């Protein structure tokens, strides 16, 4: 709380953007550090004030007990998931991908000041092919709402854009010589389908658990039909590979679904879904 108040005062005085500061905090009993560099990373401090999201912590911990292999973080942003992973298993191989150069620069600083081993940031977005697309942003260089999908939100929502490089996930994982995967986490603001398509061979080969954020479709969304079709295609790919669907709740609960729910948000539910290989279907029993 004191750290947050200090940063708020510095912002009001218009000084924080001129300073590079380092703050410390605890996750799951382990102490880590994070910097604020030209305002990038300030959201980490805000999350500490309002209460860090913890609904993925137990899920990740239980998966790590049952499955070896690297953690693939698609959509690193400012390192929120990196801290979760390292608080649970400090030695776990971590590979993070993000199309934002600023986010990649920032998270590399996190890795350095915490002396994280087996942690790698690749400054490229994952996609189903090699492509150069516009990255749309609204809230600065570390915007968690940044998207490469034109039309995912109304054009008026964004106020900046930059070109960014995207690559097929299967190609990159092969080049990185990753030969075992425990979890793939996907948070890419509308590009979930392309990410899954680009990782299909790796999914077939390694059968990882998949954590994926899929936002609900809002009322009067002109792109609703198009968005629904895209989610249906994603769902079909994973069902064809014998994956089961669960919706993650904030109270350490997972509700098994027949299909992804795009139109409702039950109490305590999140927009995070867990896709579990059929062979590991008893995993859900830990969170019923």
Automatic annotation (TrEMBL):
It holds the Pfam family Methyltransf_21. InterPro entries: FkbM_mtfrase (IPR006342), SAM-dependent_MTases_sf (IPR029063). Residues 73-239 form the Methyltransferase FkbM domain. GO terms for biological process: methylation. One of its GO terms (molecular function) is methyltransferase activity. Coiled coil: none annotated. Keywords: Methyltransferase, Transferase. NCBIfam families: fkbM_fam. This is Methyltransferase FkbM family.
């Amino acid at each position: 709380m004191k750290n947050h108040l200090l940063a708020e005062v510095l912002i009001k005085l218009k000084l924080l953007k001129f300073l590079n500061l380092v703050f410390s905090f605890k996750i799951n009993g382990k102490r880590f550090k994070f910097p604020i560099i030209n305002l990038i990373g300030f959201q980490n401090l805000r999350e500490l004030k309002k209460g860090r999201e913890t609904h993925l912590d137990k899920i990740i911990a239980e998966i790590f007990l049952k499955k070896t292999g690297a953690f693939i973080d698609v959509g690193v942003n400012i390192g929120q998931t990196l801290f979760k992973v390292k608080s649970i298993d400090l030695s776990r191989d971590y590979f993070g991908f993000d199309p934002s150069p600023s986010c990649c620069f920032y998270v590399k600083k996190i890795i350095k000041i915490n002396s994280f081993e087996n942690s790698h940031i690749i400054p490229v977005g994952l996609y189903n092919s090699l492509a150069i697309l516009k990255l749309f942003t609204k809230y600065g260089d570390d915007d968690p709402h940044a998207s490469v999908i034109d039309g995912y939100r109304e054009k008026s929502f964004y106020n900046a854009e930059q070109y960014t490089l995207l690559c097929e996930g299967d190609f990159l994982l092969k080049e990185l010589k990753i030969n075992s995967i425990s979890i793939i986490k996907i948070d890419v603001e509308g590009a979930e389908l392309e990410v899954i398509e680009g990782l299909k061979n790796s999914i077939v080969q390694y059968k990882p658990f998949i954590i994926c954020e899929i936002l609900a479709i809002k009322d009067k969304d002109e792109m609703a039909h198009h968005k629904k079709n895209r989610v249906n295609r994603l769902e079909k790919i994973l069902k064809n590979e014998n994956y089961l669907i669960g919706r993650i709740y904030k109270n350490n609960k997972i509700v098994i679904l027949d299909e992804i729910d795009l139109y409702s948000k039950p109490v305590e539910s999140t927009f995070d879904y867990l896709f579990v290989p059929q062979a590991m279907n008893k995993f859900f029993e830990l969170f019923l």
